[in-house]
TrEMBL record, chains A, B, C, D:
InterPro entries the record matches: Csp_YhjQ
Gene3D superfamilies listed in its UniProt record: 1.20.1270.360
Region called Disordered, residue ranges: 138-157
Species annotation: Phytoactinopolyspora alkaliphila
Cited Pfam families: Csp
Protein name: Four-helix bundle copper-binding protein
Amino acid sequence: MKGVAVTYTQQMLDTYPAEMNLDRGKLARAIDALGACAQACTACADACLSEGAEALPMLTRCIRDNLDCADICAATAAVLSRQTAYDARVSHAQVKAAAQVTKTCADSCGEHRDAHDHCRVCEEACRETERILIELLPDLEPSGDAPSRPSQAAPQT
Amino acid sequence: MKGVAVTYTQQMLDTYPAEMNLDRGKLARAIDALGACAQACTACADACLSEGAEALPMLTRCIRDNLDCADICAATAAVLSRQTAYDARVSHAQVKAAAQVTKTCADSCGEHRDAHDHCRVCEEACRETERILIELLPDLEPSGDAPSRPSQAAPQT
Amino acid sequence: MKGVAVTYTQQMLDTYPAEMNLDRGKLARAIDALGACAQACTACADACLSEGAEALPMLTRCIRDNLDCADICAATAAVLSRQTAYDARVSHAQVKAAAQVTKTCADSCGEHRDAHDHCRVCEEACRETERILIELLPDLEPSGDAPSRPSQAAPQT
Amino acid sequence: MKGVAVTYTQQMLDTYPAEMNLDRGKLARAIDALGACAQACTACADACLSEGAEALPMLTRCIRDNLDCADICAATAAVLSRQTAYDARVSHAQVKAAAQVTKTCADSCGEHRDAHDHCRVCEEACRETERILIELLPDLEPSGDAPSRPSQAAPQT
């Protein structure tokens, strides 16, 4: 059973005062998935640390991947939450890194899913986020080699 | 209309492999509120930047408070997501700082709620988070002046 | 032997375009110490994870404290790096939380300083940062119970 | 005149308890540059906010790029600070994203370097970091399409 929580992501996008080239629903889903994944990874690293002395040495790779995934997902959520003077080259590269780390972390957690329930839940969070990011990536494709800023949202005077 | 998003916070707490002194439902609500508030503040700072040249100079305090609130809420969510070797003095001090910044930021956004819808939504996110944190604070009270670690969760061998 | 690195903290404060109530040298030292401490704690958590299977179970509290310290110090450095519309109540509460976590983490690392050199270095980073923060705290004291904003730096029009 | 600050990055790498495939001096330089760049960008965004009402509307792109650069550099510094179970595919993708955002941010700050000293200093921080990251990138190249983990540092039992 998945949990749900109140978020303001969609409302913040709906009240954004300038134009936006990206699909707001798709973007909101990606931002929320990244936030939920960062939380799950932080919690999974900590739950791994609370496993017994015999399990712990086998979980070090998982803990490290959790920590990387938490940091990268949090930074990516922040980048995607900003629409002003949006630079597709930055968003695209950052979302690619996030897609990679969610895959790496899902694989690590997946190795322990039968032994540890928190790894099973965290694997699910990572796989779902990876799937959503891969769907978003084409929309972020920089157009041409020019310093592409496809949604020049901010009113520059 | 508030949005909802899938989060894994409650599931991660339910699968935590050691004991926990805190109420898991209350803790999950606080962690989710902090994550949603950090996102709203990041988005509100950016939406403020996209307002017109005449509005912008009046929004600089709001932007700064948004950025502080986003950073502090994100760090606090991470601290509360960790149960291993939990130190009440750290959690208590950090949650107090988060309660302060959500109040400060709600007040700043509140000054612009009639002019800017994103400030209205962000004020709501901040006030809700402040309320939840203030409810949580007594549970985090360090007991006595000893180096209190009330929920010594990790199996130390 | 301590390392040194190029930072731009002092230069950024010296080129800040508005007035500032705080001593710039003292502030720069605190921001740099927080940044260096966050890095040391991230690295110490990881080095602990690379210790052998017999040492690892005794290091879980140290790892957790390292992770809290890294997150809180990074957020505090960001808050102190912002001078616009500075709110002493937020800075004061956040610096107090950082002083607490650097003390807690220094104590944790200190227990392992003889066994693990990285814990000895990280303890030093935490103690130095705690000392600098405690020196800074009185300068951040909110004046009275009014919504104190002592260095109202931003030109609000 | 550049400032220098005490960091523990090199010491933490020198006391790392397992093997490491990367050059420690090069890695320490990259981590320190990323930390210093994140700080400069946070401070530059805030200094831009404190500019006068006539300058501010032209600085919104610069502020947004500063905020992205700060978030991405901080996450990248954390990823590079971890050596346990190092996954080259994650580090490589994340460092590429950081190289992109430091270039984008340097270009934005560069447009304002004559008008605003803080933009000049921040451009310097970003260009230096981009140069160091581009030098590091070939060392992080994942070898082949296998789940490459070139420096499997952690003693897995």
